[in-house]
Amino acid sequence: MLTVFLGPPGAGKGTQAARLAAKYGSPQISTGDMLRAAVAAGTPLGERVDGIMKSGDLVPDDLMLEVVEERLDQPDCASGAILDGYPRTRGQAEALDPLAQRIGQGEVSLVLMLDVPEEEVIRRISGRREDAGGGGGRDDDQEHVVLERMRVYRELTEPLVEYYRDKGVLTEIAGVGTVDEIFDRIDAAVRENLSG
Ligand code: AMP
């Protein structure tokens, strides 16, 4: 079974996906982390995506599909995975279901949308930048890049909320409160999905 996290940059997808992965023993597939690792290691993929990531834009769908397909084909994903950061466009979402079926996971069965107001997202990302200290942190947490990431999110990723709502697999989670409170809401949604 594949579980997908959706939500704006800074919504807490990575933090919550990691907790869910730990609780259910499912691998967390964070495309952002995978791409950052490729950049850090200087692989051909990393060289291709470095500039795109620094500008806050999206890596092309065909390249992302290759990355995700290769990862989902690994044995630890045989009984499912938690996707954090994929899909991010309609094209990616449309490519994911046939891929999920090919690897025996059926269609995406649960999409957790973390709802966080935009002002809160910007406040959190600025905090992430300050916590990291001058010069540290993610390259793409600089203010102008954050604004571009938000624009890209609204234009290309937010439409997936309707896409998955229409398929009947969307659960909206209030992404405000403490990390524990948010996780409890997510876990309740997952348990309901498992029992249904
Ligand atoms: P994230 O850590 O999920 O915020 O991702 C950081 C950056 O990696 C994004 O701003 C994109 O440039 C790139 N990226 C991650 N996942 C995807 C994806 N599914 N499609 C396109 N680009 C992605």
Tell me the layout of helices and strands:
Blueprint: E1 2-6, H1 13-24, E2 28-30, H2 31-41, H3 44-55, H4 61-72, E3 81-84, H5 90-102, E4 110-115, H6 118-132, H7 143-157, H8 159-166, E5 170-174, H9 179-195
Parallel strand pairs: 1-3, 1-4, 2-3, 4-5
The protein binds adenosine monophosphate (AMP).
Structure description:
- The protein has 196 residues and is an alpha/beta fold.
- It has one domain: Rossmann fold, CATH 3.40.50.
- It is built from nine helices and five strands.
- A five-stranded parallel β-sheet has the order 2-3-1-4-5, with helices on both faces.
- It is globular and about 45 Å long.
- The structure holds adenosine monophosphate (AMP).
- The site of adenosine monophosphate has 17 residues, from helix 2 and helix 3.
Q: Structural class, judged by helices and strands? A: alpha/beta
Q: Could you say which small molecules are bound to this protein?
A: adenosine monophosphate
User: In whole angstroms, how far apart are the ends?
Assistant: 13 Å
**Number of beta strands:** 5
- Computed over alpha carbons, the radius of gyration is 16 Å
Q: Could you name the key traits of this structure?
A:
binds adenosine monophosphate; 196 residues; alpha/beta; 5-stranded parallel beta sheet; 5 strands; Rossmann fold
Summarize the entry for a quick read.
The chain has 196 residues and is of the alpha/beta class. Helices cover 59% and strands 12% of the residues.
